[in-house]
Fold this sequence. Notes:
283 residues
Amino acid sequence: MQTAAELRGSWRWLAPVFVFVGSGLIGIAGYYELIPFETRMWMRLVLAVIFLAGLIIFWRNKPARETCLALAAVSAGLWVAGLVGDRFITWLGISDQDARGFAVSKINETLPIILIILLAVLLSRRKLASLYLSGGRVGASLISGLVVGGVLFLYFLSQGGWQVFQAGALKTLLPDIAWITIFSIFNGFMEELWFRGLFLSRFEWLLGRRWAFWITALTFGMLHAFGSFTGTLGSLLLTTFTVFLGIAFGYIVQKTGSIWGAVLGHFFADFFMMLGYFATMGS
């Protein structure tokens, strides 16, 4: 029979596995399109119920309770986002294949997740500072985000992005840039609120700063592998790229205590990616 000390030692190893598997299941339920949408909707709902049950079971254990809250909030947010679907696109009668449709679809997807995360945290009587939304060294955070944006811009140019700024190409893309900006703002804020604001902060309580840092970065990359539409090699490259971004964003948040530099850097990553995508589509 295990002693209390041995049980605590086992939990130190089991906790990262629980967090990684739980986050992975959420990613599969949210974005793994090889599974039928209706099945993924049931997975999201079941996961939300399971993590809510964990929230009750571990009510007196703050680290475990807050971790279950984080996992439950995202599962529920994804479920509600699935219920909303593309209703706004249907009501507006617009295509989901152009920049405007991409932006509206992204608003449909991200708003429920953002609102449920904020609601869950406020109902748990936590302040927005617990999501790194206030406090910390905001100036240093934003400067770090600009540095990441500068590196991403240079990478974008090195991959042929300079062609976007030629007169003819830029003129063609101008009507799309506002929609690409909206897409990038909503997606960047939602994913950073999810991974750095919610997951990183809650996982730190359960796992410690180092484990939380690496598991958040890895699950961030894994999420993009599930959502990739570029084939096996493209999925591998995108996953690797987003893991490195997750490392950079996690470092910024942990060093500055503010999420806003990570949001800014994430905005640039999405903006240049979408700019390149529509430039390619236009050509």
